[in-house]
## 1
Amino acid sequence: MDLKQLEEKLFPLRTKTYCVLDGAAVKELPKRLYEMAPHHECLVRGELTPDMVHVAPYVALMIRGDDFSDWVLENTLGGNCGIFINTRFSITEMRNHLRALMAVHTEDGKPLIFRYYDPRVFRKFLPSCDAGQVETFFGKIDRFLVESEDGEGMLAYSQSEGTLKTDVLEL
């Protein structure tokens, strides 16, 4: 995957770019977030146990050309480590929206965590949604970008009035 071409696609003008990274898939993610200090938020509410800190998902602001963004692009692609988001909204608004998407319940009411931020889950889930679900899932998000199944490109998901559009970005 050509990183320069990917940067062109990930960082459009007039929107912010966030990544949602899976701590279970990214080795030492909390350490990297601490050392590189991007603006980030944990998507799991409350105080976390030490084990949970290392497997929790995090949303982080990406800025083209900064150390953290370069590290993400160089070290997480091809490993189903997370997804990317384009939006005009703040990280706090994104954290709140993304947290809400994680909370699901079984038919008998048992709470579960929906791991939509795993590209393997995302690629199967989003196309199966109806128009109302698509609108709810996107919320204030303009576009989701997810690595393709073969890891050689990206899938860009956008929507208009609940109609999902998927573009394949060859890199």
## 2
Amino acid sequence: CFITMNPGYLGRSELPEGLKALFRPITVMVPDFQLIIENMFMGEGFTESKALGLKFATLYALNKDLLSASKKYDWGMRAIKSVLVVAGSFKRADPTLSE
């Protein structure tokens, strides 16, 4: 049995100490966002997925680093996936548009 926790995420709380004692904590590495984004572009039907993945990952990293640290901004993978799904729907709606 295992559980996953992300107490830093908005609206989440810490696990009670009594329950923490029943589990062994592990650390998970931060994924390579550029590689994930590249594959998501590919899955959405983009042919220039490598170049787009690099540009998009750079844009998100710069936004995350340079914009104010406000809770209203979400620079996580859920937000990235949402944007790429919408981009894919635009691509499928008009395949003649430039990537």
